[in-house]
Design brief:
Elements lengths: L3 H10 L14 E3 L6 H9 L4 E4 L6 H9 L6 E6 L2 H11 L5 E4 L13 E7 L6 H7 E12 L5 H8 L10 H10 L3 E14 L2 H10 L13 H14 L2 E13 L2
Parallel strand pairs: 2-3, 2-5, 3-4, 5-6
Antiparallel strand pairs: 1-7, 6-8, 7-8
């Protein structure tokens, strides 16, 4: 393994735009959810006429889904809030005929009522259920893979100390919010997934990319904890944490 200083520089300078995690190959692993989100979404997109992907990131997963769908929907749109990801999503999705609109997370969606028969979102930071129900056509479906409360808690607490995971991202909480907005929840499946980090550079890149894990993270501010993390991995092997995920499917009656 390279020196701590070399790994520090590598982690601090690796690109973190978009939601392509290919950089982590050989550096970190995460167990995949059993339901296969991209496959499920491709199946539904293949029978839809108008699809919206909310908070699409760099559009990587949405592009994969559309490429795998048996039939391309006549209308495909997406939203994204972060300017670097917005530019990346437009580059990735324009060749597939997808319109990508800028929209703040949790804000009103820039589309007319009942515009889509399928709305999807993978790992949204927040879900505006009233807007989701509004843009869904009657009989339309919603499919999402959400980040659950306490995700990567072991990693958060290594840097921050004890963390209260709260209740806002519990599966049952979001299901109740969806139902309050007039949607009928048809599937709700939680799962804890083992994640391993093989060097401190992988930890740094993850924390720069998934910024809510350790809010305010920087190499300078958390240097002492990074030294401790590097020593722990060298002595004990990969650092293990668990991501929390749940599948939530619903429809508008």
């Amino acid at each position: 393994m390279r020196s701590f200083e070399e790994l520090l520089v590598e982690g601090a300078n690796a690109p973190v735009d978009g939601w392509d995690f290919g950089w982590f190959a050989g550096r970190a692993t995460e167990q995949r959810p059993s339901w296969g989100y991209a496959r499920l979404l491709a199946e539904r997109a293949g029978t839809a006429t108008a699809v919206l992907d909310v908070q699409t990131g760099g559009g990587e997963v949405y592009a994969e889904v559309l490429a795998r769908a048996a039939h391309r929907p006549a209308t495909a749109a997406a939203t994204e809030s972060w300017p670097p990801n917005l530019a990346l999503a437009r580059r990735n999705l324009a060749p597939l005929g997808v319109t990508v609109a800028e929209a703040a997370d949790g804000a009103a969606l820039p589309f007319p009522d009942a515009s889509f028969d399928l709305v999807a979102s993978r790992h949204p930071t927040v879900t505006n259920w009233a807007e989701t129900a509004r843009v869904l056509a009657p009989g339309g479906h919603y499919l999402s893979q959400q980040i659950g409360a306490g995700s990567m808690r072991e990693l958060s607490e290594f840097f921050l100390g004890p963390v209260d995971p709260g209740t806002g991202r519990l599966p049952q909480t979001l299901a109740a919010e969806a139902q309050a907005a007039g949607l009928t929840v048809t599937d709700l499946r939680p799962q804890a997934l083992r994640t391993e980090f093989y060097d401190v550079a992988a930890v740094i890149v993850f924390l720069r990319k998934v910024i809510w894990t350790v809010p305010g993270f920087s190499v300078e501010r958390h240097h002492d904890r990074l030294v401790a993390m590097d020593a722990r991995i060298r002595a004990d092997g990969p650092f293990v944490a668990h991501s929390q995920r749940f599948l939530l499917a619903a429809h508008r009656p």
